[in-house]
Amino acid sequence: MVTGKPCSRWFAPLAALLMVVSLSGCFDKEGDQRKAFIDFLQNTAMRSGEHLPTLTADQKKQFGPFVSDYAILYGYSQQVNQAMDAGLRPVVDSVNAIRVPQDYVTQREPLSQSNGALGVLSQQLQNAKMQADGAHSALIQGDELKPVFDKVYEKVVTKPADALQPLIPAAQIFTQQLVQVADFISQQGTQVSFVSNGIQFPTSQQASQYNTLIGPLAAQHQAFSQAWGAAMAVTE
Q1: pTM score of the predicted model
Q2: What PROSITE patterns does the record tag this protein with (predicted)?
Q3: 108/181 Cα distance (integer angstroms)
Q4: 179 found inside a domain
Q5: Is residue 189 part of a domain?
Q6: What is the DSSP annotation of the chain?
């Protein structure tokens, strides 16, 4: 009976000590992961251009649970890249290809396709922004990580979203008007003639209708170009 008492007296503190060491080791590991992630955000993500880098296997191991934090940024960045590359750059290419009136007709089909895709693209980006904002607001980050992450979030998510908000409607209005001009020219059939990089109609009424259609194009082109420049400035 006597020999059992020292055991209970010494082993209990030893077990508590081992538990403290074990927990301390867990906290140190998470601290290292947090520091590695902060360093990556400051020196890689903030300095990245249009495309955020994909995490390597080593980086995923280094960042641990913070990989899911980065997924919020990376996922939205991919959506923006797709919007610019597949949805909006084709509009720019088609517009730049219009040099003479006949080009309205040749560019009619790609412009029509772009116009139809822009509505779907706008909704996709709105949904992506809502999803990113929801995931961002749900994050529980310490005082050391949060301000750094929020700064990258503003660069990768908030500013591009704000820039794309006026760009897509401007592209929709502009492409729709260009398609209308192309349709009008096509409807005139052989009555239209293209001479010296210009266009001629047999009647003043047709010429007046054409001039009415192309009238808004200058202002619409300016609005689209300004919105495009603003979007490029925050996504490159």
Answers
A1: 0.80
A2: PROKAR_LIPOPROTEIN
A3: 9
A4: yes
A5: yes
A6: --THHHHHHHHHHHHHHHHHHHHHHHHHHHHHHHHHHHHHIIIIITT--SSPPPPPHHHHHHHGGGHHHHHHHHHHHHHHHHIIIIIIHHHHHHHHT--STHHHHHTHHHHHHHHHHHHHHHHHHHHHHHHHHHHHHH----TTTHHHHHHHHIIIIIHHHHHHHHHHHHHHHHHHHHHHHHHHHHHTGGG-EEETTEEE-SSHHHHHHHHHHHTTHHHHHHHHHHHHHHHHHHH-
Task: Determine, yes or no, domain membership for 190.
Answer: yes
Structure tokens of 135? 């995931």
180 and 172 Cβ atoms separated by less than 8 Å: no
- Facing residues of 195 across strands? 198
pLDDT of residue 15: 46
Look up the domain containing 145 and give its range: 65-235
Enumerate residues 6+ apart whose C-beta is below 8 A from 131: 75, 76
The span from the CA of 6 to the CA of 234, in Å, is 69
Helices 159-187, 204-214: crossing angle, 10 deg rounding:
170
Q: Rounded to 5 degrees, what are φ and ψ at 198? A: -125, -170
**Domain presence at residue 184:** yes
197 band by pLDDT with thresholds 50, 70 and 90: confident
